[in-house]
Protein: Acetylornithine aminotransferase
Organism: Paucilactobacillus vaccinostercus DSM 20634
Amino acid sequence: MQNIFPTYQQYPIDIVAGHDWHLTDRQGHTYLDFTSGIGVCNFGYSNETIVQNVTEQLGQIWHTSNLYESALVDEVAGALCEPGMLAFFCNSGTEANEAALKLARKATGKPTVLSFNNSFHGRTYGAMSLTGNPDIQAGFAPLVPAIKFADYNDPAAITAIDQQTAAVILEVIQGEGGVVNGEPQWLHDVQTACHAAGALLIIDEVQTGMGRTGQKFAYQNFDLDPDIVTVAKGIGNGLPLGAMIGKQALAPAFGPGTHGTTFGGNKLALASAKGVLAQLTPTFLHEVQAKSVPVWQALQTEIAPLAAVAGISGKGLMIGIQLETTVDVNQVIDQLQQAGILTLSAKHNTLRLLPPLVMSSADLLAGLAQIKTVLTTIGEE
Ligand SMILES: Cc1ncc(COP(=O)(O)O)c(C=O)c1O
């Protein structure tokens, strides 16, 4: 690539077509996709309802600005939010977290935000400053002030939540950090400490949300009650859309003129989101949970015992396979690509799987069998 900044280390695979959960590159090679475009195309690449919604919208109007009311915006917000919550639409996960940071400070009148080591919240200044990864922040100082970090799942972190704390932000499963599961009791202790200190609990559902773990939002697996939730990725199934969802009581802090973005609530992206939300039914979520059962059985019985594997983590169809230090995850990804399977990495030498939620059980298990073959061969080298 000669004409773009080299911010990404790219594979020499130019994907030009997709159908269901299969992708085809320019050379005509086909791939079974365990990436969903990094947790985005949860309904695959040719979902009929989404294609129809977006095509119809394309024939009507694409963009009108937020200066005019829109029944579509209100309808999608209503379908997205849990009762008693309101939405602010933006274009990405990082923007959703920017909005959350701004709203938390403005609503509480307090400065300090607590985030966690090994977290990822995005790349803009606010979201990057919330990201607990020194490699991502390196060279960009000075960062946004009054953001503190504590260790994820560490009971000592609770003591860092005090009367100065505007908000605590966390992922209930750290995605980019290597698919690290939050401890249920610890998550509840964080929430209790937030309530006691008058701090808002922000849950970043950018990667875990929209059905990925078998619930609409992953925090629902833990019965949590966040004040603010951020989403992106899967909500638009590939059209750029993000949202910050917050409790109705926070509305006075986000009145006219306080925050905005030209493309937030773009009609094409919302037409896609409408299709996503219409299909994210309890029945569909139940199907995701049901098809995860044989997947986790295979992970535990076939993959976990391999010499190359140090551990397995995640929930539903968000899967981390932590590899031993003797095995390079990038080499595994390369070999899987040659075998026709696309996968992802995450921190700590983790092979990360985020297949489209619509992938058939047969292909989920076929992919795992191929992963087992590659990990077995590499482990023996
Ligand atoms: C948990 C989490 N938050 C925020 C982001 C940033 O989202 P975006 O890349 O849409 O800005 C990501 C992206 O990977 C993420 O995983």
